[in-house]
Design brief:
By secondary structure, the chain is of the alpha+beta class. It is 43% helix and 13% strand. The strands form three sheets. The chain has a five-stranded antiparallel β-sheet with strand order 1-2-3-5-4, sandwiched between helices. The longest helix is centred in the C-terminal third of the chain and has 27 residues. The radius of gyration is 20 Å and the shape is globular. Bound molecules: 2-acetamido-2-deoxy-1-O-phosphono-alpha-D-glucopyranose (GN1) and magnesium ion. The site of magnesium ion has 4 residues, from loops.
């Protein structure tokens, strides 16, 4: 049985809802996502956007519409959004915002991997995404979440949350808080003005890459955070989710690992895509690999201290677990900086094409 609201939304897209069934997709921490079946076959992915987090939904969808009109070539599959009767990809119904895209048959996602081909493909698809958007004027895109990956702003949010947090909660997070204070200064070397602003995906987790049944990467999904940013953000998010064999909320920290072979395969895939990076971007990639888990860990910690108001959680300490495993990974990334740098310089020599 399909719930009434979903039926009504499908009708806005002229879908005959009598033939429909659906399944909830539980990957994301923010939007509500449904796989829609027509006569038993998966056909569409419908999303209800979380407007308390995505406050500028119309601008967000304008970014997506603009980028997806360029995001396709022989190396990259097009994401096809449905239009409602008034011609828009976004539908406002019952005070909520919805959008829907065609499901790509037999496509799959991976939360984790130990497969070198998948790591290569992940690097190739991120590079291709950036190549396809590299000529875009960054001013043509809206900044829908200001300071999204600005670690200094995220640090301020953390200190404000810490000041008013419940003492018991603070005490249970003391190791994580110490990690923040011990490591924040490592990022002082990052001078963002050295880096080109690019149109980024800004959430390049492995499970935001769609793969075909042959394990070839098709395209990136979850495009809500497409906006101006720096390549080190997309690279760091990809690496943290590919080279670490466990899920983001792994409790057993000894299982958190940095698989340098998989790192090298990502770089090979990036090289294959022929994306061009500046000397400064290349120089900053290893620190970016530590920055992104640090920054996400910090955001999870802030949410834990604030009583879990931002991310969806299944149990009360889940944000703390996510934070601790990401901090463990950030620590491993610092340790592997030299090895990363060596391989990046060797492979992406920065003479014309990388
Ligand atoms: C959120 O909802 P989801 O999983 O796509 C978050 C990302 C984090 C991610 C944690 C808008 O994304 O920044 O990386 O959780 N998105 C937003 O893995 O905050
Ligand atoms: Mg996302």
């Amino acid at each position: 049985m399909v719930n009434k609201l979903i039926t009504e939304v499908l009708e806005k897209y002229n879908i005959d809802s009598t033939l429909v069934s659906y399944k909830t997709i539980t990957h994301g921490y923010i939007n509500d996502t449904y796989l829609i079946f027509l006569e038993g076959e998966p056909k569409f992915v419908l999303q209800q956007l979380n407007t308390s987090i995505f406050k500028k939904v119309e601008m967000l969808q304008q970014n997506i519409d603009r980028a997806t009109s360029l995001l396709y070539n022989e190396q990259y599959s097009r994401l096809d959004f449905l239009r409602s009767s008034n011609g828009n990809t976004l539908v406002k119904y019952n005070d909520r915002y919805w959008r829907m895209m065609h499901y790509i048959p037999d496509s799959i996602t991976f939360n984790t991997t130990n497969d070198e081909c998948i790591a290569f493909e992940a690097g190739r698809i991120i590079g291709t995404f950036h190549r396809l958007l590299e000529k875009e004027a960054t001013t043509a895109y809206h900044v829908t979440i200001p300071n999204f990956h600005d670690y200094k702003v995220r640090y301020k949010e953390f200190t404000s949350a810490l000041e008013i947090a419940n003492a018991k909660v603070v005490s249970s997070a003391k190791d994580a808080i110490k990690f923040v204070n011990d490591n924040i200064e490592h990022f002082d070397t990052l001078e963002m003005s050295d880096l080109a602003i690019r149109i980024c995906h800004n959430d390049t987790k492995l499970n935001n890459i769609l793969f075909g049944a042959d394990k070839k990467a098709l395209c990136l999904i979850d495009l809500d955070t497409i906006m101006p940013g720096y390549f080190i953000y997309d690279f760091g998010d990809l690496v943290r989710t590919v080279v670490n064999p466990v899920e983001e909320d792994e409790k057993n920290l000894s299982k958190v690992k940095f698989n340098i072979n998989l790192f090298e395969k990502i770089v090979d895939g990036l090289h294959f895509s022929k994306m061009q990076l500046s000397d400064n971007e290349l120089e900053y990639l290893p620190i970016g690999v530590a920055l992104m888990p640090f920054l996400h860990g910090l955001r999870f910690l802030t949410d834990f201290l604030s009583g879990n108001i931002y991310y969806k959680v299944n149990y009360s300490d889940q944000n703390l677990d996510r934070c601790l495993s990401l901090f463990k990974f950030a620590a491993l990334a610092f340790k592997h900086k030299g090895q990363m740098k060596f391989y990046l310089k060797m492979k992406l020599n920065n003479k014309g094409t990388i």
